[in-house]
Amino acid sequence: MFILPELPYGYDALAPTMSADTLRFHHDKHHKAYVEKTNKLAGEAGLEGRALEDVVREARRRSDAALFNNAAQAWNHAFFWTCMTPQRARPSGALAQAIDQAFGALEAFKTAFVQEGAGHFGSGWVWLVTGSDGLKVVATHDADDILVREGLFPLLVCDLWEHAYYLDYKNDRPGFLNRWFDNIANWAFAERQLAAANGQGQGFRYPSEAEPEGRRSPDIGESRPTA
């Protein structure tokens, strides 16, 4: 049975970039509903007891749209919470070097990230990923995620669904993305993900009931990119 992970910070910790009202509504209502529906549908599909990453991939393999949409959204949101922090910082170390190599500079990366997210039509997610070609920015529609993209490994994501920003920014998605990138993006987490993609340490995995989420980032397993 999948759990609703606790946020790794207080509801008001990301304000004013993301308000406590948005976090309560987003986490306690939207994410909770995805988890509850996933538990029901995974049980009906005979996948109870499997890791959520496995459920997402198996739902896609079976073309089970209802299970995929709910399971992938449950996973995406747990990853998203970990991609944010109240500790404002800048990319450093190997991540900063990889950004410079792929984009030329941090500002060029920010421009690519914000433009990709702002220009994405409808709901979805904007990701920083790594693979055999290095870092790149990609967007996915609706519940789609990087778990089912062979050869790609997720480093960071921002939610493009309206419930992620509408209470705070109305229809100003570019404003949300700019402030999110500058103020609350968790670059330390992205750097750990990059290390995991390169075989150093463990990457993010959806928490089990025995291992509550909050301040950990276990392994994502077979979504590690191949050379």
Describe this structure in words.
This protein has helices spanning 20-44, 52-61, 65-82, 93-103, 106-119, 166-169, 173-183, 187-197, and strands at residues 124-131, 134-141, 153-159. A three-stranded antiparallel beta sheet has the order 2-1-3, with helices on both faces. The protein has 227 residues and is mainly alpha-helical. The chain has two domains: 20-82, Helix Hairpins (Orthogonal Bundle); 93-223, 3-Layer(bab) Sandwich (minor pseudopilin epsh fold), CATH 3.55.40.20.
Q: What is the C-alpha radius of gyration, as a whole number of Å?
A: 16 Å
Q: Helical percent range? A: 40-55%
Give the domain tally: 2
State the fourth-level CATH superfamily of the largest domain: Iron/manganese superoxide dismutase, C-terminal domain
Biggest beta-sheet profile: 3 strands, antiparallel
Strand order of the largest sheet: 2-1-3
Number of helices: 8
End-to-end Cα distance: 35 Å
Q: What is the CATH topology descriptor of the largest domain?
A: minor pseudopilin epsh fold
Structural class: mainly alpha
CATH architecture group name of the largest domain: 3-Layer(bab) Sandwich
The sequence of SSEs as H and E is HHHHHEEEHHH
Shape: globular
**Total E-strand runs:** 3
Please report the first level of CATH classification, the CATH class of the largest domain: Alpha Beta
Mean pLDDT, nearest integer?
Answer: 92
Note poorly predicted spans: 211-227
Report the β-strand fraction as a percent range: 5-15%
